[in-house]
Amino acid sequence: MSELARIQALLDLGRDGEAAEAARAALATEPENAELLLLLSIALRTVDTDRCVAPAKRAVALRPGDPNALLVLSAAQACVGSLLDALRAAEAARSIIPDSPRPHMMRAAIVMANAMNVGRRAGRRYLVEARSDAQRALALAPNDPDVQVLLGEIADAAGDTAAARGHANRALAIDPAHPEALTLLGSAAEADGDIRSAGEMYLRGGRMGDDGAAESLMGVGERGPTRSEWNGYALAAVLWVIFCGIVAAQLGLGAAQLLFFAGAAAGVVYIWVLVPRQRRAALDNDAQQARRDLRDFGTDDG
User: Fold this and answer.
1) Number of helices (H) and strands (E), helices first, in the chain?
2) Has this prediction a pTM greater than 0.70?
3) What DSSP state is assigned to residue 223?
4) How far is residue 121 from each of residues 97, 124, 128, 164, 245, measured CA to CA in Å?
């Protein structure tokens, strides 16, 4: 196996740190190898994002008309937030290979990212533009699940969870194990409040950190009151009944009976009405915390 093939295999396995080290070692003896530079840029996107642009720029300088080098540079620039430069590189690649879906997909992804950085009205306009680019890619590659996922992500960004779910399902019809499609289904389920399904999709799609964030989502909604919580509720009800009975005793037998039963009713109402309301509030807090855990995990490297 050649060194280029070995580095590519490491990237395919998600071992980006090892791929970056291998690419650096190979570049020590072949500093002008554009393919090695491009592989290094790809690896550095996750392990050292701030340094991923430089090797891609060197590769473009060595091969200025190479659309693949331009697309790798575009992706690197987008990773560091240089969206205008990324857009220019993607458009340069598109001018060279207009019949390939890749530059259209890259442009759509960049425009979608830009939509997140502007006001609501401008954001909607950018999302329409991103969808148009993605539709061009779909026309060129109708059986590419990545295009369906991209369209779903654009729909999700626009708040159209039904369309996002449809695109994710179409991607899964092509590739049943597509991780981004499963994650997109999880996002749609979470937006609809179906926390357990969201956790299952995130787990299947690989969005599970060491802290078990996906399992945390799957568990939300199943946990009932703990024993100590039930003890607290029961004690509160009993104390309320006793209090009502004492007050009633001071007012005479008839009033005592009336107030005693009123107190008992209040205890029942507390347990059967207020307790479920408190549990729903607790579950909402748990769900919000699990979502924060997942968002934090999503920003981690590798």
Assistant:
1) 16, 0
2) no
3) -
4) 32, 5, 11, 20, 62
